[in-house]
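Box 3.1 A note on notation
Throughout this textbook, protein chains are presented in two layers. The first layer is the amino acid sequence; the second is a C-alpha cell string describing backbone geometry. Keep the layers aligned when reading.
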Amino acid sequence: MNREALVLGVGATPFGRHLDRSAGDLAGQAAHEALRDAGLAPADVGAVFHATVSQKAIDGQHMIPGQVALRPHGFAGVPVVNVENACAGGATALWLAIAHVRAGLSDVALAVGVDKLVCADPARGLAVFDGAMDIAHREETLAALTALTTLTGPLPPESTVDGDRSVFMEIYASLARAHMQRFGTTEAHLAAVSAKNHAHSVHNPRAHFRRAFTAEEILAARRVAWPLTVPMCSPVSDGAAAVVVTRADFTRDESAVAVLSSVLLSGTDRAADDAGRHIGRRAALAAYEKAGVGPQDVDAAEVHDATAFGEIQQVENLGFCPIGDGGPWSASGAGALGGALPVNPSGGLESRGHPVSATGLAQIFELVTQLRGRAGARQVSDARIAVAENGGGLYGIEEAVAAVTVLGRNR
C-alpha cells in the first residue's frame, strides 16, 4: 500500500462578516466544495477532523461542535474528531487527516476549519483570543514581552484588554519593537509588507478586504499599538475552509497535490535572543528535512501574518532570508507577486481575513490553487513547491504551536 498523501480537493467560503449564517452553514459549504473539487461525496469520507473555537467560546457549543455542524450536511456515521489549537486549529486538523491516511486507517479524510467571530458585541469576538495564552500568568507574560525592548511607545495593558483590539495585537507590537531594536527593522518595512498583502488581496474573490493601500496610507492609518496601524493587523472574520486528503494510490487525478511533509510542534523555553530555536524556525527546518527540499526550492508561501511583523518574522524562520533581514527583504519586493518568492499571494491574514480555525486550511486552499495554476491574476509563475506556516497562541515569548506544511505539484 502506498501511504503517501495527496490533497485531492479544497474548498473555502468567502471570509468576512456573515451575521446571517451559522458556523454549521459555513463549515458545510466549505466541506461540500472540497468534496466536489475532489469528485467525491460525503459517503466516501472515512474520518473528519473539525476545528473551531468560536462554536465553543461564543455559541456555547463546548462539546461535539463538529457533529453539530456537519451532520446536517450529510456527514454521519463516521468518526468526527474535534480539534482546538488556537489559530493553528485548521493546520492541526490537516496534520491529523494526513496522519490518518498515512496510517492506512481510511482512504479519504476531511479536515474542516470554521469560526464565526463577528457578533453584535465586538468585545465578545475579541475576548476569544484571551484564552490563547496562559491566563493564569497573563500579567507576567505581558510584562516579560514588554521587557524585551527599551524602545519607547505605548506598552501592553497591565490588566485589561482594550475593547477595540485583541490583546494579541499588543503582543505582536511588543515583539515588533524588540525586532526593531535588535535588527533595525522600521515602520516603513512593516508598511511595505502590509501594502503588498493588500495589493494581492485585490485579486482574491474570497478575501475579507479587497482594497489596495499605499505604504503612506498604511503609516497614516489609526494606530493600534505602536508600531502597528489598522491595515497592518488582521481583521476579525467569519469563514470556513476544508481540505480532502487521500492516499497517493487512491486516485490518478493529475490535479491532486502531493503532501511532501507536515510538521506540528509545540514551543520550548529559550532565551529571547536565541532566534535559531524559535518554534517557527524549528518547524520549518523539520518540514524541509522531511520533504527533501530547502527554502531555495520554494516557489510560493503562505505565512501567518496576523500582523505585518508576523510575516517579517516568518520569512526569516522559513529561511527565505537571514534572521534579522526580514524587513529589508520584504521592502525589496522579493515577497510580492513577480518577486523572487511571492509570500501570501492570497492577501494573507491582514486582508484575506482570519477566522482563526479556518486560517491554516485557507492557506492550503491558496497554495493548492497556485500549484494547479488556477489562481488567475494572483498566479505565481510555474509554482512547483509551496510552503504554509501557521502559528497559534502564545506561551512565554513565542507561539504555543506551529505547523509547517510543504506541498508539491504532482505532475
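Residues 27 and 379 are 26 Å apart (CA to CA). The longest strand covers residues 238-247.
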